[in-house]
Write a structure and sequence with these properties.
Order of helices and strands: HEEEHEHEEEHEHEHHEHEHHEH
Number of helices: 11
Oligomer: single chain
Shape: globular
Bound molecules: ligand PBG
Structural class: alpha/beta
Strand content: 15-25%
Radius of gyration: 20 Å
Helix content: 25-40%
Distance between the termini: 40 Å
């Protein structure tokens, strides 16, 4: 007891603080999300996400090059097609924008890993993550085949990993089967397992032009009041073959990250989503917070909660800081 025991002793010197630090952020933890738009000469700022752009293929390659130079291990790719329709055809078109981008990246920068987001919402005219019927209901089973087709087309183009973000029941199993049947037994799936219906995705929907044109996503994404359900969802994805499980959003769901990690001991990814990014950017633009310190504290909290991987729009900033 005090005065024999003094926790402050070990906090007096930076070297000792470093030596006893329990959690570290590393460049190896980071995945950098990018938005590729169909067309030429595009570098369109996302107004609610300063520093984030919709990029045409050429500009995307430049951004990937920078990420690769910073030793960021992987990017997560979202596509914005020119044409949308009710069945999201461009999501699984052989020459869709994501498929083109994957081929180009793998050709020019074979070392950086390419993870593709698998979902229909950026490609459907109605903005939902699955097919809809005449009553506007999002159809689960009819959507599964299209998701599997989308994932397979990404992998055929050269994607190193696929990340289904749609929250249809059974999609991980359907995708696993499609990949296996086509010989892609070693391509892992990072499942958005505990994905909540969240207002924190607001800015993303501007970035990906994927806002639902009617209704909302509460019939497929989870309710923020639920915690046990996140365990059930994650359990199902693991049973269906998920290799990495994701909790999304991250900041308001650190408890879920911890539970998922403790329950399964699987690699856990945390998605530091668009709204979390925008809030920090907005406050720091006002001079109200110290952006660099806030970002570090936020991302370390995700590590402390149990995340192994962090998907973040801050990836380049963090990588630069860590390299200093
Ligand atoms: C697509 C998808 C979304 C995000 C990732 N994949 C949006 C949504 O579900 O509406 C959100 C990412 C972010 O907010 O940064 N289904």
């Amino acid at each position: 007891m005090f005065p024999t025991i003094r926790p402050r002793r070990i906090r007096q010197v930076e070297n000792f603080r470093k030596m006893v630090r329990e959690n570290h952020l590393q460049v190896n933890d980071l995945v950098y999300p990018l938005f590729v738009a169909e067309g030429t000469n595009i570098k369109k700022p996302v107004s609610s996400m300063p520093g984030v752009y919709q990029l045409c293929l050429d500009n995307l390659l430049r951004e990937v090059e920078e990420a690769a130079k910073l030793q960021i291990p992987a990017i997560l790719l979202f596509g914005i097609p020119k044409e949308k329709d009710t069945i999201g055809s461009q999501a699984y078109a052989e020459n869709g924008i994501v498929q083109q981008a994957v081929r180009a990246i793998k050709k020019e920068f074979p070392k950086i890993s390419v993870i593709t987001d698998v979902c229909l919402c950026e490609f459907t005219s109605h903005g939902h993550c699955g097919l809809i019927n005449d009553n506007g209901q999002v159809l689960n089973d009819a959507t599964l085949q299209l998701l599997a087709k989308t994932a397979l087309s990404h992998v055929e183009a050269g994607a190193d990993m696929v990340a289904p973000s749609d929250m249809m029941d059974g999609r991980v199993g359907e995708i696993r089967e499609a990949l296996d049947d086509n010989g892609f037994i070693d391509i892992p799936i990072m499942a958005y397992s505990a994905k909540y219906a969240s207002a924190f995705y607001g800015p993303f929907r501007e970035a990906a032009q994927s806002a639902p044109q009617f209704g909302d996503r509460r019939s497929y994404q989870m309710d923020c009041g639920n915690s046990n359900e996140a365990i059930r969802e994650t359990y199902l994805d693991i049973q269906e073959g998920a290799d990495i499980v994701m909790v999304k959003p991250a900041l308001s769901y650190l408890d879920i990250i911890r539970r998922v990690k403790d329950e399964f001991g699987y690699p856990v990814a945390a998605y530091n989503v668009s709204g979390e990014y925008s809030m920090v950017k907005a406050a720091s633009a006002q001079g109200w917070i110290d952006e660099e310190k806030i970002v570090n504290e936020m991302l370390v909290s995700m590590k402390r909660a149990g995340a192994d991987i962090i998907l973040t729009y801050f990836a380049k900033d963090v990588a630069k800081r860590l390299q200093k």
